[in-house]
Specification:
About 50% of the residues are buried. The strands form three sheets. A four-stranded mixed β-sheet has the order 1-4-5-8. The protein is about 50% helix and about 15% strand. The chain is built from eleven helices and ten strands. The radius of gyration is 21 Å and the shape is globular. The longest helix has about 35 residues. By secondary structure, it is α+β, with helices and mostly antiparallel strands. The chain binds flavin-adenine dinucleotide. Flavin-adenine dinucleotide binds next to β1, β3 and α11.
């Protein structure tokens, strides 16, 4: 059977995440969204105090050393209530894992305790106003100077950009050299030359706290080089495969919650002398949502298992992310439709879920970019005859 495999200790961590979601997120989410609030810092501290920020940090550093399966289960628990909130917290947790796996010993000693406790919120920043899908085209420039670097440019759509203290920021060191010249740097957002731009006003999902950051001649020491040219781009792509998988898992969890709500409502609400659910046309609409949800979950868990096995999951993750994000847009619309006008009310999560489904179709590579990955694999498999490609 294709399912998440958790140890007893991991099950307890997922229960902890579910209780946190029920007690801390659920009661306030409507209010936060109405005020277009980013994730409040005290929520990050509380999440961290439960050890959830250190989910994948090895025991030697004081973490739980949890598996990728466990991370996916935690992401699902959060996203059942709010995907934007789940994405923001998982992003913060992912930055802690990235530091322990990829940071230098000096960087780990200096930053890991603050990252684990939630005192330092770190955000990855690739996208720019002029470069989204085409990440190799970024133009933020890191110029080598004695003892460090001087960085000038503008970053866009930084998740948690409204509250972050630190960026893992990608910049071009040799204009014109594309992916090969890209390096990543740790940028302290209190440094001179940093301007934090106002968070984006969107159709929903404001807990994600997305904002732009402008950098003018920001001085960065050599100690804050995170990944050198030649490595930064490759590491970013590796991280994106895992991120695509948890976005797919979050999209599934959100549809599961919408479907439960729509079915409960349709079994209570009467029309033409019987519950809505007794009308075959409406029931089948929800059956279609359930069928697609099952298919999306299977794709997601297959990608999860491939990553957990330590194998390249680029194509599995692309299938899962593409299908789950598009399924969520269709599925949530169908659930809203089944609830009639009631489905629009903000006492229900459906409108928030709809905005989040749109977000899921963009973050960590759009649906079209997943198509490009899958298309390239199709060519390798069927036109070039490579047997080592999925299908
Ligand atoms: C809420 C939110 C949070 C985000 N958080 C982060 C973050 O934390 N860090 C970060 O770095 N980025 C983040 N992003 C940015 C996200 O990764 C980009 O939105 C995404 O990469 C797409 O870039 P773009 O929006 O500039 O679209 P563009 O690249 O301008 O694309 C526009 C449209 O053209 C399509 N397109 C582009 N190229 C092709 C092609 N070759 N073939 C076919 N179609 C194509 C796209 O799929 C899209 O539909 C976030 C975005 C959102 C909405």
């Amino acid at each position: 059977m294709c399912a998440l495999k958790l140890t007893e200790a991991e099950r307890r961590l997922v229960d902890r995440a579910s209780a946190f979601t029920a007690q801390v997120i659920a009661p306030s989410i409507t209010h936060w969204e109405a005020n277009r609030s980013p994730l409040p810092r005290e929520v990050v501290r509380e999440w961290s105090s439960l050890g959830l920020n250190a989910l994948q940090v090895p025991g030697a550093h004081g973490g739980h050393d949890a598996s990728f399966h466990c991370k996916i289960a935690v992401a699902e628990a959060l996203a059942r209530v709010d995907l934007a909130c789940a994405f923001a917290l998982i992003n913060i947790q992912g930055s802690v894992t990235r530091m322990v796996r990829e940071g230098s010993p000096e960087q780990i000693a200096r930053l890991l305790p603050g990252l684990m406790s939630g005192e330092i919120i770190c955000a990855p920043s690739l996208t720019e106003p002029g470069a989204g899908s085409d990440f190799a085209a970024i133009t933020t420039h890191a110029r080598k100077v004695a003892g460090g670097w001087e960085i000038t440019g503008e970053k866009a759509w930084v998740t948690n950009g409204a509250i972050a203290d630190l960026l893992v920021m990608y910049a071009q060191t040799e204009p014109g050299s594309g992916a090969d010249g890209i390096a990543s740097f740790l940028i302290d957002l209190r440094a001179p030359g940093i301007e934090r731009l106002p968070p984006y006003a969107m159709m929903g999902g404001h807990m994600i706290g997305a904002a732009g950051i402008r950098l003018t001649k920001v001085a960065v020491s050599d100690n804050d080089l995170f990944a050198p040219p030649g490595q930064a781009f490759k590491r970013a792509l590796r991280g994106i495969t895992a991120a695509r998988t948890h976005v797919a898992a979050m999209a599934c969890a959100m549809v599961d919650s919408a479907l439960g709500l729509a079915i409960a409502y349709a079994s209570r609400r009467q029309s033409f002398g019987r519950p809505l659910l007794r009308h075959q046309g409406l029931r089948w609409q929800l059956v279609d949502v359930a069928t697609e949800l099952e298919a999306a979950r299977l794709l997601t868990y297959r990608a999860t298992q491939t990553i957990a096995d330590g194998n390249d999951a680029q194509i599995e993750a692309a299938f899962a992310k593409k299908f789950a994000a598009e399924m969520a847009i269709r599925g949530i619309a169908a659930c809203m439709q089944a609830m009639g006008a009631e489905g629009l009310l903000d006492k229900h999560p459906l409108a928030r879920h709809m905005a989040s489904a749109r977000i899921a179709a963009y973050v960590d590579g759009t649906t079209e970019i997943q198509n490009e990955r899958i298309g390239a694999a199709l060519v390798r498999r069927y036109a070039e005859g490579s047997k080592n490609v999925l299908f």
